[in-house]
């Protein structure tokens, strides 16, 4: 069983980048009256407490969502601000939504959602807050492969693995190519960490070569602490919704000032 626990990292600078883009994409997709399907391969627990022992131990949210709110990175009318306010209104001021609860904020009656989480404890926690979705305690890649193309056919697939399995970097380009062929109208979004050793570079290059019209958004930031390997965040989005490129440019300018 893989050991990664996002509770230690929730609300960090990578989350702000990823979730700002996700919320913006979902806001645009749900602005149209047509139903959609939301699929997530590695959902985590869905809801995080920034006052928890895990979050306080690393303090990564202080440099992430706490700084973003204090410095006005997310205007009141930003889709992520809207989702965060709704979640904190329900769960308290220290709550931080993972991507499942961000999606839940935008999904409407008639939309469909599928969330995969293999880790037993994370899956159990997810089941407490994700009654809007069908939950799958299985490998997320297998779940998505079985569902795609989904009904409704409009929709978004978020791929957000922990990358503890190093082979993921090698297999993801081929896996996404197959998914894109099966679901040519779907928005397929991949998040990946940018580490000091640049191990993502070959994967990102292969994806860009296979999908030249996709959106590539990468931001860099100082490591959370001495010796911490993550120095940036990447999002690769096939069939990006209208306006997502402008949000990516806005975020790039903000992160460039760190």
From TrEMBL:
GO molecular function list: 23S rRNA (adenine(2030)-N(6))-methyltransferase activity; RNA binding
Site (Interaction with substrate rRNA): 4
Reactions catalysed according to its record: adenosine(2030) in 23S rRNA + S-adenosyl-L-methionine = N(6)-methyladenosine(2030) in 23S rRNA + S-adenosyl-L-homocysteine + H(+)
SUPFAM superfamilies membership: S-adenosyl-L-methionine-dependent methyltransferases
Entry-linked Gene3D superfamilies: Vaccinia Virus protein VP39
Enzyme class: transferase
Transmembrane stretches, start-end: none
UniProt record, GO biological process: rRNA base methylation
Source superkingdom: Bacteria
Keywords: Methyltransferase, RNA-binding, rRNA processing, S-adenosyl-L-methionine, Transferase
Subunit composition and interactions: Monomer.
Family under the similarity heading: Belongs to the RlmJ family.
Function in brief: Specifically methylates the adenine in position 2030 of 23S rRNA.
Protein name per its UniProtKB record: Ribosomal RNA large subunit methyltransferase J
Organism: Paracoccus salipaludis
Lineage: Bacteria, Pseudomonadati, Pseudomonadota, Alphaproteobacteria, Rhodobacterales
Gene: rlmJ
């Amino acid at each position: 069983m893989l050991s990664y626990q996002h509770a230690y990292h929730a609300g960090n600078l990578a989350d702000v980048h990823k979730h700002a883009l996700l919320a913006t994409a979902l806001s645009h997709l749900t602005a149209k009256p047509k139903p959609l399907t939301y699929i997530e391969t590695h959902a985590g627990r869905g809801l995080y407490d920034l006052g928890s022992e895990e979050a306080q131990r690393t303090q990564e949210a202080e440099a992430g969502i706490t700084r973003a709110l204090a410095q006005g990175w997310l205007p009141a009318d930003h889709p992520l601000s809207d989702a965060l306010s709704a979640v904190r209104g329900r769960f308290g001021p220290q709550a931080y939504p993972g991507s499942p609860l961000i999606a839940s904020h935008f999904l409407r009656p008639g939309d469909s959602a599928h969330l995969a989480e293999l880790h037993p404890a994370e899956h159990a926690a997810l089941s407490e807050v994700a009654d809007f979705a069908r939950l799958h305690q299985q490998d997320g890649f297998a779940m998505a492969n079985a569902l795609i193309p989904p009904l409704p056919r409009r929709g978004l697939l978020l791929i957000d693995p922990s990358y503890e399995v190093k082979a993921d970097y090698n297999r993801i380009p081929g896996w996404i190519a197959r998914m894109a062929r099966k679901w040519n109208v779907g928005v397929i979004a991949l998040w990946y960490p940018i580490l000091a050793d640049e191990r993502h570079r070959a994967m990102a290059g292969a994806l860009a070569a296979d999908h030249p019209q996709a959106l590539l958004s990468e931001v860099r930031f100082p490591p959370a602490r001495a010796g911490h390997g993550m120095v940036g965040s990447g999002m690769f989005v096939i069939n990006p919704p209208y306006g997502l490129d402008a949000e990516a440019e806005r975020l790039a300018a903000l992160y460039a000032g760190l």
